[in-house]
Every structure is written in structure tokens, then in C-alpha cells.
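In response to the reviewer comment on reproducibility (Comment 2.3), we provide here a single inverse folding case reported in full, input and output, so that an independent group could reproduce the run without further information from us. The C-alpha cells appear first.
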């Protein structure tokens, strides 16, 4: 299949490589030239802009940071809408509010582009291994067209219904779990360090006992190795937990755990760590307590 891919960051780079490996012809675009160069090295075509990537494409995958970037990629100057053929499928894998997802789906449908609302989770390693979990909603037509594209990238594809927005709702709910788990992991690691324990021992004990969590298993080793090169930037949880809190406010539903975790990510971002790996959330506790969380240190 001839495929356009917009957004070649930590996740998009690995996802596009999986698609190339499965035999799809991938033309991709990212605002970062190095990301486009990596796609070309993997066997894809580096496009000059989104419109160039979408020319003649059977489908488009959008994997940018937020809804504002989606707007620019689809409908801005040199955007996908200028060249994407009628009937081409748009797989929207961007975390956004359910209302934003529904709005994009309606605008795309008006131009005869079916959309699959398909955010995912798993992290950059899962993306490289084709082990992502997609939370998807859309028409039967959209799912049928998406199947050969999702298969090389996915461990599971959850079909959540025919209405776009349901996938984004599930991702919003999921991000409360992911963000709060990691915030708690940072807290317990920093607290144990302050109390005289080795962070490496804390990590090992907790992840081999009842306190185990996927987020701590995945990010904890980077946290205590002080490896903050961004596999996923901390700013993700500032955005995603903010989305959940706004939805909770609109629904008059309390989200105290999400709110507490959001404040921690905001504190880390306010101290200049928003572009670092999500594990840099531990730096908020370091700043408050005067410690350094480091294996063996």
C-alpha cells in the first residue's frame, strides 16, 4: 500500500520503519530534518512537506504531538488536504480530546476521507517491536482499510465502536493510569532514596512485589540511571493529564489523583525539564528535597 506518514518522532520513526518492513511504500514528513533523514535511511521517501507526502497515497497516518499540529499538518499551507486522494483513509494516532477527534472526523468525512480514531500506547520500544496497543473507533470501512497497516505495528487493536472520539476517550482514561503510575513511582523512589535506600534496590523490590507497574518497569531504569534523553517527552503528561482534567471538569467528575499527578509534571516542566524524558518527573522531588536519585548513589 502507498502510505503517507506525518510525524516521525520517537514513536513515528519506529512505526514507519515497521510499515516499511512489512512492504508498504512510505512517504513521510516531519518538521525535524533529521527525522526525515532517518526515514530515508530505513527505506522510505523523505517528503518536502505534508502535501508532498500525501500525493497519490492510499492512506495517511498522523502521529504529531497535539491537535494544533494536526490542524497545521492537514489544513495548513502545504498540508495533506491539498493532495490526499479522495477515499484515502486517515489514521489519527494523536492524543487529543474526544471533541477534537469528532471534529476532525467530520471535516475529513466532508472531503470523502474516512478517519479511524486510533491513539495507541506502549512506548518507543513497543513501537520498534510492533507491540503497540491501539484504542480505535470508526466505521467498518475504516477498520477494514486500516487492518494491513495496523497489523505490523500492533500487539492488540481494541475496537471501541463506530463513532470517532471513543478511541480518544479511551486514551484519555488510559493516560490517567500511565501518568499517575509514573508519578507515584517517582515519589516512592525519591522518598526511599531520601531515607537511605539504594534506588536500584527500590526498583528491583517494588517491581517484584505487589507494587509493580509497567510504567515503573519501563521508565524506572532510565530514571535511576539518569538517562533523560526523551523517548517520550515529559510534556506529554502535562498535555494528556490536562486533557483529562478538562473533560472531568466538563462532566462534573472529580479526578483528584490525575490532578495531583498533573501538578507534579507541571512542576518538573516549570523547572525546565518538559523536553526531557518522562522519567525526569523525579527531578521535581529532587528539587524539593535536595537529593539526587541515582543507582548506587
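Designed residues, in position order:
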Amino acid at each position: 500500500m502507498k502510505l503517507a506518514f506525518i510525524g516521525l518522532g520517537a514513536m513515528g520513526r519506529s512505526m514507519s520503519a515497521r510499515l516499511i518492513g512489512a512492504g508498504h511504500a512510505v512517504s513521510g514528513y516531519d518538521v525535524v530534518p533529521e527525522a526525515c533523514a532517518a526515514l530515508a535511511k530505513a527505506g522510505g521517501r523523505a517528503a518536502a512537506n505534508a502535501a508532498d507526502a500525501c500525493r497519490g497515497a492510499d492512506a495517511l497516518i498522523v502521529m504529531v504531538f497535539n491537535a494544533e499540529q494536526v490542524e497545521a499538518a492537514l489544513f495548513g499551507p502545504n498540508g495533506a488536504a491539498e493532495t490526499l486522494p479522495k477515499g484515502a483513509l486517515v489514521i489519527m494516532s494523536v492524543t487529543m480530546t474526544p471533541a477534537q477527534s469528532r471534529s476532525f472526523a467530520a471535516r475529513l468525512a466532508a472531503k470523502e476521507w474516512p478517519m479511524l480514531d486510533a491513539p495507541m500506547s506502549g512506548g518507543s520500544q513497543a513501537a520498534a517491536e510492533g507491540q503497540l496497543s491501539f484504542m480505535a473507533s470508526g466505521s467498518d470501512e475504516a477498520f477494514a482499510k486500516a487492518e494491513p497497516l495496523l497489523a505490523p505495528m500492533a500487539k492488540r487493536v481494541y475496537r471501541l465502536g463506530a463513532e470517532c472520539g471513543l478511541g480518544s476517550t479511551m486514551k484519555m482514561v488510559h493516560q490517567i493510569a500511565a501518568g499517575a503510575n509514573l508519578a507515584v513511582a517517582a515519589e516512592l523512589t525519591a522518598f526511599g532514596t531520601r531515607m537511605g535506600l539504594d534506588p536500584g534496590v527500590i526498583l528491583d523490590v517494588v517491581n517484584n512485589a505487589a507494587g509493580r507497574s509497567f510504567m515503573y518497569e519501563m521508565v524506572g531504569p532510565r530514571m535511576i540511571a539518569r538517562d533523560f534523553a526523551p523517548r517520550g517527552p515529559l510534556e506529554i503528561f502535562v498535555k494528556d493529564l490536562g486533557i483529562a482534567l478538562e473533560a472531568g471538569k466538563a462532566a462534573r467528575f472529580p479526578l483528584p489523583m490525575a490532578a495531583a499527578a498533573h501538578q507534579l509534571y507541571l512542576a518538573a516542566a516549570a523547572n525546565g525539564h518538559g523536553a526531557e524524558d518522562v522519567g525526569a518527573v523525579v527531578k521535581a522531588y529532587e528539587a524539593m528535597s535536595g537529593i539526587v536519585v541515582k543507582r548506587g548513589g
